[in-house]
């Protein structure tokens, strides 16, 4: 497998070099995430200190709790997962090292995150100094893409720290008397802005994660063993379209199991091409060496009418006695001038001539039913007699239909029925019990129509095409697509957060009612989506996923069956909610500051820009589908 497998190889349809892939996919995004993380963490810590100084310990403790919350949830998630613990049960060295590392990440999570970002930046730069197919390049890419628990912390930070921190600081900023301490206001604005960037970065990275995971992408916080096992299973069970179509320049006969039998029958009757060439060469060599095989020599004058008339039979001037005398001579070259001194001297092989005449007579007798049709324009030749006569030999009997032919038709019929049943089971949620349970009848039918071994291996029978199962996923976005999508989500989150924060300032009760109804609606949509292809066993995670859908939508942990309906419906619902809240607080709220007029125009502008970015991304920059063929089990 290529070290950069899964990394976009083109930008706007133009292929790029491997170093450009590394820079745009790894180096630039990691540097940007590192800068955003440093500024966001520093700003939140400064906000906590400012709240304590200003005599607001409640807001300070809320801010400090939100800083620690992602790290605590990440620690609990890792410790409660049995697959992450060492295989050996008991308190040994590996178990102690595992606990020590996770406790260290819990306590010193900013340093752990910085170490993770610095490590990826180092190996990204290191990969640029190695050639494309070198071992150093592959090792550097493996170091960049290796999994780490810090990635889970970074993912949770967007929804457990950045999102609630935005809501909290915006609410504090919009209250009366907040604008007196400009140092606190400056830090709060910086925290809000970089919270937007943090959320947009995570949403852009995990936008269609499930569609990308089924074709090769792994969770970045999974263990090394899980990631390796996932890649091996994907390589074993699937094959890419490129490997299928470009494995050989032509379609080999062995692709169909019946083709070898056809070629075997052909070679058994006519021999292979090499055998035919070698046989022809042997015949030429044997003819030159004077073998016993006789050939009928045909020259150009045999096809010339005038030349053929000038050709005379050597026995034309022989008497019967002379002919008998010639027949009694040994089968050697006879000089006719010795028999008739007064005649023309002709040297020929009598035995060869007799053998040729006998071969011609045998050929004419064997083909007497099919008379050659001569040219009517030639006056010397007449139309053969009995041209329209009934053939003397009877016509060959009509071949009977074999049982294998009916067996193949029945297999084709069963294949269509199974495809129809699979389609009904996939699209209809609740089918009557026992509707398609007819396995006994199918087994009985198969036992009745099973052909014999000779019918199975008949190479001259027709091979019916079979349907190959495929997995359709999604490639990762290129640099331009990620940038446009990132800007779209920044504008979308700006519209959403400003609309909810200002609405909470004027109507706090209706705010909680709106959020609760939206949350319950998202839970209902998630339950409806997973009713067919997932089990309802992740109740707590679905509750957290519905909380994420209050701010944004991403395909994570569940794969959308109807992706277009999900995104169109979600964006439409969010626009309706934001416009409704905007109309309510702008017309019914009591405010005098110009700040709210500015927020009113900002919400409208950001919502419009976000919709335009999403439409442009969907129309021109969305990634292509990635198709994998499921390998048949031997």
Automatic annotation (TrEMBL):
Q: Does the keyword Transmembrane helix apply?
A: yes
Q: Which UniProt keywords apply?
A: Cell membrane, Membrane, Transmembrane, Transmembrane helix
Q: Tell me the segments the record calls region Disordered.
A: 368-401
What membrane topology is annotated for this entry?
Answer: Multi-pass membrane protein
UniProt main location, coarse: membrane
Highest taxon of the source?
Eukaryota
Record family assignment: Belongs to the XK family.
Protein's recorded name: XK-related protein
Which species is the source of this protein?
Anopheles christyi
